[in-house]
Amino acid sequence: MDKQNTLVNDAGLGLRRSFLNEIVVNPPANVSFYEVAPENWMTLGGKLGKQFRAMTERFDFICHGLSLSIGSSDELDENFVRDLKKFMAEHGIKFYSEHLSYCSHDGHLYDLMPMPFTEAAVKHVAGRIRRVQDILEHKIAIENISYYAAPGQEMSEIDFFKAVVEEADCNVLIDINNIYVNSVNHVYDAETFLKAMPGHRIAYAHIAGHYVEAEDFLVDTHGAPVVDPVWALLDKAYEVFGVFPTLLERDFNLPPLAELLREVDTIRTIQQQASSHPPQRVA
């Protein structure tokens, strides 16, 4: 299976139904690719289905899963994965990404829960990732999630993440905001964590805003503009690993599309500035 690193380029935007009409009629020039949660689009028909088809015929897309529950002890939902494969083939979608988490235990929990950072969990989830990759016939990208508790922790977050992607031989969706949020909530240095990421596996990145509950407690909401320390961490990531495709996530408190596109422009500006310098490539 080939690496997915070059299948999308530059800056992307999470596609939401609320601005689909506007995007279809007047596609923004600064968005090179889009991302959708397949669960929200796989069964669409009618006008929305036709509009989605019009978009996938013209632009590069990634599917970013919400419900596969890759880390769960429940049986892997292979029927969903096969439906996903068909959906991706129908629309020419480049590849699939998923959270390193679980969201079911004898029923869906409707939240992304952290896995225990243990060797047993590494073996468990890596086997499931490999199985998904076998069905889809491509490497998937696994995202470092935000979390607020680490039950049963036997190893560090970064060691767990690296062990999983190495054991599964998968790609990485590096979420810059999640690194920042976790660094504040769990009191570690964000740049040190960033530099330890397996940079050679990065397929693309997410960047998003968060909610400040307290000075030492941030909540990963995707419901606010990206803050300066997160932009700075993205710049550092490009400096360390080189420029990679980066997508703006915004799921709640959606502003006018023009405001989102200004943040996409910021991604492009940082990418252009970073492109003039050779990366450090520490990982």
In terms of topology, how is this protein built?
Blueprint (H helix, E strand, L loop, with lengths): L10 E4 L5 H6 L7 E4 L9 H11 L3 E5 L13 H14 L4 E4 L2 E3 L3 E6 L5 H18 L4 E3 L13 H12 L2 E5 H10 L4 H7 L5 E6 L3 E4 L2 E3 L8 H14 L4 E3 L8 H19 L8
Parallel strand pairs: 1-2, 1-12, 2-3, 3-4, 4-7, 7-8, 8-9, 9-12
Antiparallel strand pairs: 5-6, 10-11
Helix pairs in contact: 4-5, 7-8, 8-9
Structure, described:
This protein is α/β, with parallel strands linked by helices. Helices cover 39% and strands 18% of the residues. It has nine helices and twelve strands. The strands form three sheets. An eight-stranded parallel beta barrel has the order 1-2-3-4-7-8-9-12. A two-stranded antiparallel ribbon has the order 5-6. Strands 10-11 form a two-stranded antiparallel ribbon. β3, α3 and β4 form a beta-alpha-beta unit. α8 runs parallel beside α9 (257-275). The longest helix has 19 residues, at 257-275. The chain starts with 10 loop residues before the first strand and ends in an 8-residue tail after the last helix.
